[in-house]
Amino acid sequence: MIQLLYSVIFAEMALIMTLLFKTPLRKLVIMTLDRVKRGRGPVVVKTVGGTLFIVLLSSVYSMLKIQQRTIEAGAVNPTDQVLMSKHMLEASLMGFLLFLSLMIDRLHHYIRELRLLRKAMEAAKKQNRGFEDGKNANTDERKGLGDEVATLKTKIKKLESESETKDKEANAAKAEAEALKKQSEGFLLEYDRMLEENQNLRNQLESIDQSDGKKNM
């Protein structure tokens, strides 16, 4: 019994050392403990722990009985002394074993909580990074839109300037056309006047010719 308790205690100590340091073996131990805590595992562990606790109480009760018997006898019996030492050693080993089991359970629980917390922090960091990337992308997009708006404003100003120039040219061409129209109207009036004078001259020449013909007769 004592050899078995020592073996279990040393195994638990090795397990605790494995859980304390980050090694590839720790992942295997954590996976094994995860499986043990699933299904019927917790019931079996509680049953074994309860049995050990009952045996521990039995050893303590035996020690109390031996102590009471020694007090009543008034002398120390060598057999009772050996049994007292045996029960005390067994009770100490079982108490230490239960304590180490509790330590393993709590270490496993805290390691799992730490892993979940790290995963949550990594997810939050990724989300934060994604938000910052989106924000930077929006900033770049806004900057690109601002540059595009500035380019469009420059083009609009250029087109307005070209439009004003073309309007001035059109107004100048219109004024020139009006001047040419007035000039052509003046030419037509002059032409009509010259035609009228030419016709008058012809009429005068015809009347002169007629008067000369009458004189010759």
Topology, please?
Elements: H1 2-20, H2 24-36, H3 41-73, H4 78-216
Q: Beta-strand percentage?
A: under 5%
Principal-axes geometry comes out as rod-shaped
Total count of helical runs of at least 4 residues: 4
Return Rg in Å.
Answer: 60 Å
| Helix content, binned percent | over 70%
Low-confidence stretches: none
Quantity of strands, as a count: 0
Q: Sheet with the most strands? A: none
Describe this structure in words.
With 217 residues, this protein is mainly alpha-helical. Helix 1 crosses helix 2. The chain has 4 helices and no strands. The longest helix has 139 residues.
Task: List descriptors.
4 helices, mainly alpha, about 95% helix, about 220 residues
Give the structure's gist in a few sentences.
By secondary structure, this protein is an all-alpha fold. The chain has helices at 2-20, 24-36, 41-73, 78-216. The protein starts with a helix and ends with a helix.
